[in-house]
Sequence to fold (606 residues):
Amino acid sequence: MDQIMSFFKIKKSVAGMIILLFFILVAILAPYIAPYSPTSMEFMPLEHPNSQHLLGTTATGQDIFSRVIWGTRLSLSVGIITGLITIALSIMMGITAGYFGGITDGILSMITNIFLVIPGLPLMIIIAAYITVKGVMTIIIVISITGWAWGARVLRSQAMTLKSRDFIKASVIVGEKSSHVIFSDILPNMLSLIVAEFFGSALYAVLSEAGLEFLGLGDANAVTWGTILYWAQNNQAILLGQWQWIAVPGLCIALLGTSFALLNFAVDELTNPKLRRR
Amino acid sequence: MKYVLKRITFFIVTAWVALTINFILPRMMPGNPAQAMIAKFHGRLNPQAIHALKIAFGIDVQKNLLLQYIDYIKRILTGDFGISLSFFPSPVNQILSYAIPWTLGLVGVSTVIAFSIGTLLGIRTAWRRESTSSGIIIPIFLFLNSMPYFWFALLISYLFAFKLKWFPLVGAYSLNIPKGFNLARIASILYHAILPACTIIITATGGWLLTMRNNMISVLSDDYVAFAQAKGLPDKVIEYKYAARNAILPSFTGFAMALGFVISGALLTEIVFSYPGIGYILYQSVLNLDYPLMQAIFLFIMIAVLTANFIADLFYALLDPRVRTGAE
Fold:
């Protein structure tokens, strides 16, 4: 409880929470906030911002403001879902390696280290280019597969530290099963680290999703911030002077990313005794 | 020595894994991509290209997977990456050797600059962590670090190249200047590199800053720093010679992760600025379903990152005696 209270005392975590809540609200209330349907092509194409179309219209006559509002839904949920899958993979690999040690650790750590050096985006581009089914699921899977290694490494070393603590040793000596020790003793004690890593993974997911969609490797018909940018670039929004078409969805990505980064930073600061403010 | 051997082993194993991923991926995908491609370009590919594709992607039914794999490894080791389909009939090697210097120059220089600025700022913000300026710098860099590279690239190209016309919009050099080694060409290359480099530097600095800041804060709470203060050593000496020297070590181990991230960002930056490096070519090859070129680029990026990482690891051994002697 104390930790949760002090979490709200750190300005960074409050700012992060506010931004995240804002986007969650926008996503939920999208049908009420957005003035038009995000896919309707009934308007004049390439209009500059005006009172009817706050952010102008696309080359196919879609209202950009409505697309940005509706885009929040997919962009946010892909970010969070991918973050969750990624952290689940990290937990599985990291804690198994750290808890069992020995050969298991040797093999899993090797795999982790290899995935750590493989640059994510090129691998994602290659995989996404081979997979002919383009869509949100593909993006989620591709990002999760390439993004879990960093978290696994952090969680592994934490699991190793915990394992040498007396209360875990006691559990083992009493004869508790490994699954019990892992789920009831180790996991709850690294919850804060897991939360911090989750926000880190979500940030990575949001940025990677945007990058892949911008390159046209996502579903070009889906309404997300990344695909809005893809169409803007494809229709040469910059050369047409339609800078708001690019600026606003990108700013949303950057702000959502910042909120995850702030939350990651705040949880880290709170739970790492060395980083805590004196 | 044991450490160096371990790093070399890791380098070789990882390179082998990369090679194997490259081999397995296209064969694992539902509906062989090469088959789809041959169908798509029906009649437009000449027999030589179709043959190259068949060998590269295992539609060659006469051979089993193991033999194909051995063939593949042999070809890679001899540097034979096949023929590009989008730039037919140029060999993939030739296209790569043209693109590589651009990327190495751009990414190399910007990474060194970002690393230096980020690390220095990290030291400063950790040393004066209670100050207002540190309180402002951190959120700003968290934001800059959370920006999609390509978006920031688009924005600055709109502002500085399209609106203000201070810098060129795309490309790596002016086409009006004769090729070869002359001052005008070098100036033109530098001039074209400024915006892409700024994109990478501004978005990448935050990562180094945060790593360095956190290491530095950990080190500052160590007893030997308190002892140095008690001895009355000047602040500057403690800050740089005592604390920063030790705090910079984890930045080198974090190099692997950060470099992968920077490379990814640089690819997108190149695409936005149509900068003729590896990223731009990769994008072109993906658009044109040029699988041989795509495979070769992926391998090249992997090997480049592994090598940079290997060098960072050796540096680490040089800087940290504990690694050399094997003591904890």
The mean pLDDT of chain B is 81. Chain B touches chain A through 63 residues (CB under 8 Å). Chain B has 15 helices and no strands.
